[in-house]
Amino acid sequence: MNCWEFFCRIRRSVWFVFFDTYIGRLTQILLLDKRKGAMTVAKVYVFDHPLIQHKLTYIRDKHTGTKEFRELVDEVATLMAFEITRDMTLEDITIETPVSETKSKVLSGKKLGIIPILRAGIGMVDGVLKLIPAAKVGHIGLYRDPETLLPVEYYVKLPSDVEEREFIVVDPMLATGGSAIAAIHSLKSRGAKHIKFMCLIAAPEGVAAVEQAHPDVDIYIAALDEKLNEHGYIVPGLGDAGDRLFGTK
Ligand code: PRP
Ligand code: URA
């Protein structure tokens, strides 16, 4: 190798080191941008917690049976709820420990309501209730017409104090976005003002549709998948969430 070739090789290595550092820096910036344990992209939070990602792998796996699927969905819902409730407001109260009087924090502010979109959303309710046992639970029944893929509403029952509550709408799947949009619309038309939407797996099409229809609603996702297929299923997704939860196929 002559001097020039040696110089070129060194220069290339230096460039790669610089490039590597630059990419590393970018990754760092993205990681630093993680707000509350979730990566923010506008108002969409994609959870990257290893426990959530690990459990999601087995939720997706077609060899996972109904019992395990149900348990895993429940566990992931709890983990997600832990992050989603991070912005709950606190107030000081005075208590007495066995040693002294002290000020300590308790939850204040709006009470919570959980709204599963039937059927599959039911699978996430208990997981959220484990952390917020006093939350009220409303139900919105929607199914997706297999031909048009449009949501059909068949049941709505909400807590009576809708206007005062903050709601978390839960559904494992956000595909075209039709069901989430309709459920949120249904809630708003009955007076709800503070709504978050939480799902396990979302397609980019669904996220964009919900963001556009309800820009005031934050979306929390365990995984943002690649696309929808021609049947409106999320790819790679997990298949039909309702059927897998309830063993109906
Ligand atoms: C599934 C899922 C969502 C909806 C998502 O429900 O649980 O509610 O599809 O699809 P979208 O974003 O395109 O509206 P499904 O309609 O299969 O009803 P089910 O829960 O009763 O099975
Ligand atoms: N509903 C599901 O259950 N799964 C999908 O992939 C899309 C909609």
Automatic annotation (TrEMBL):
How its function is modulated: the record gives:
Allosterically activated by GTP.
**Which reaction does this enzyme catalyse, per its entry?**
UMP + diphosphate = 5-phospho-alpha-D-ribose 1-diphosphate + uracil
Q: Which GO terms describe its cellular component?
A: cytoplasm
- Tell me which domain of life the UniProt entry assigns to the organism this sequence originates from: Bacteria
Which keywords annotate this record? Allosteric enzyme, Glycosyltransferase, GTP-binding, Magnesium, Nucleotide-binding, Transferase
Q: What class of enzyme is it?
A: transferase
Reply yes or no: does the keyword Repressor apply: no
Pathway(s) it belongs to: Pyrimidine metabolism; UMP biosynthesis via salvage pathway; UMP from uracil: step 1/1
Fetch the InterPro entries from UniProt. Answer: PRTase-like, PRTase_dom, Upp_B, UPRT, UPRTase/APRTase
In alphabetical order, the GO MF annotations are: GTP binding; magnesium ion binding; uracil phosphoribosyltransferase activity
SUPFAM superfamilies per record: PRTase-like
Q: Which family does it belong to?
A: Belongs to the UPRTase family.
HAMAP family to which the protein is assigned, alphabetical: Upp_B
Q: What does this protein do?
A: Catalyzes the conversion of uracil and 5-phospho-alpha-D-ribose 1-diphosphate (PRPP) to UMP and diphosphate.
Report the protein name in the record.
Uracil phosphoribosyltransferase
- Which species is listed as the source? Pseudoneobacillus rhizosphaerae
Q: What is the lineage of its organism?
A: Bacteria, Bacillati, Bacillota, Bacilli, Bacillales
Gene encoding this polypeptide?
upp
